TrEMBL record:
Any GO molecular function: DNA binding
Originating organism: Micromonospora costi
InterPro entries assigned to the protein according to its UniProt record, in alphabetical order: CheY-like_superfamily, NreC/VraR/RcsB-like_REC, Sig_transdc_resp-reg_C-effctor, Sig_transdc_resp-reg_receiver, Tscrpt_reg_LuxR_C, WalR-like
Domain Response regulatory: 12-128
Taxon lineage: Bacteria, Bacillati, Actinomycetota, Actinomycetes, Micromonosporales
TM stretches of this protein: none
UniProt cross-references to SUPFAM superfamilies, sorted A to Z: C-terminal effector domain of the bipartite response regulators, CheY-like
Keyword Phosphoprotein: yes
GO terms, biological process: phosphorelay signal transduction system; regulation of DNA-templated transcription
Gene3D superfamilies linked to this entry: 3.40.50.2300
Protein name: DNA-binding response regulator
Length: 225
C-alpha cells in the first residue's frame, strides 16, 4: 500500500446540487478515490453554506443553478465566511454567462457535469492543494465567449510579454491546474519562491485569483491544449 494514502487525510468535500441523481453520480465518482471523502450533501445553496460552516471541508463542490441560493452566491458567501474552503463549480455549456461571472466570486475550479469523471477527481485535488482547475473544454469556452471581460489572444500576449521567462513558466503551470507544491517540484524551486512569483504575476497581470490567471495563460497560448 502506498504510504501516502495512510499518512495523509482524505480531502473532505461538501457536495451541493438540487438533483438527487446528479449528487448520487458525483458522490459515486468521488468514492472511487480513497483520497476524497464526501462529508455532507445539500440540495440548495443556502444549505450548502450552512453545511460548509458546520463541517469546514477543504472543498465545496457546487452546482451553479440551485434554489434558495444559487451556486455563485453560495461560493461568494463561503469565501467570506469560510475562506479555508475552496469552491469548485459544476457547470454545463448552457451556463456560459454564469461561468464568466463566477470568476469574480473566487471560485477555484470549473468542471463539466458531462465531462470525463477523471476531471472531477483532478479538480477536487487541485483546488485542495491550493491550485486552480479548469476543465479544458470549459476554459476554451469561457475564452471564446468572454467578450470584453476576458482578454483576447493578442491582448493576452501583450499583457504577459512583460513577465520574465520564469514567471511565464509559473503562469503556464497555473493554467495547467498545478498547485504551488507541484509547480515547485516541476521547476526545482522551494514553495515559498513559487508564492513570491505568483504575487508578482498577479500584480503585473492585474488578476484577482488563480482562475483568472489560468484563463489568461490559456488565452496567451502558454498552456498546451
Amino acid at each position: 500500500m502506498n504510504s501516502d494514502t495512510t499518512t495523509t487525510a482524505p480531502v473532505r468535500v461538501v457536495l451541493a446540487d438540487d438533483e438527487a441523481m446528479i449528487r448520487a453520480g458525483v458522490r459515486a465518482i468521488l468514492a472511487t478515490d480513497p483520497g476524497i471523502e464526501v462529508v455532507a450533501e445539500a440540495g440548495d445553496g443556502r444549505a450548502a453554506v450552512e453545511l460548509v460552516r458546520a463541517h469546514r471541508p477543504r472543498v465545496a463542490l457546487l452546482d451553479i443553478r440551485m434554489p434558495r441560493l444559487d451556486g455563485l452566491s453560495a461560493a461568494a458567501e463561503i469565501r467570506r465566511l469560510v475562506p479555508g474552503t475552496a469552491t469548485v463549480m459544476l457547470t454545463t455549456f448552457g451556463e456560459d454567462d454564469h461561468i464568466a461571472r463566477a470568476l469574480g466570486h473566487g471560485a477555484s475550479g470549473f468542471v463539466l457535469k458531462s465531462g470525463d469523471p477523471r476531471e472531477l477527481i483532478a479538480g477536487v485535488h487541485a483546488v485542495a492543494d491550493g491550485g486552480a482547475y479548469l476543465s479544458p473544454r470549459v476554459a476554451r469556452r469561457v475564452i471564446e465567449l468572454g467578450g470584453g471581460r476576458l482578454a483576447r489572444r493578442p491582448v493576452a500576449r501583450d499583457r504577459t510579454a512583460g513577465l520574465t521567462d520564469r514567471e511565464r513558466e509559473v503562469l503556464a503551470l497555473v493554467g495547467a491546474g498545478l498547485s504551488n507544491a507541484e509547480i515547485a517540484r516541476r521547476l526545482y524551486l522551494v514553495e515559498g519562491t513559487v508564492k513570491t512569483y505568483l504575487t508578482s504575476i498577479f500584480t503585473r497581470l492585474e488578476v484577482r485569483n488563480r482562475v483568472q490567471a489560468a484563463i489568461l495563460a490559456y488565452e496567451a497560448g502558454l498552456v498546451e491544449e
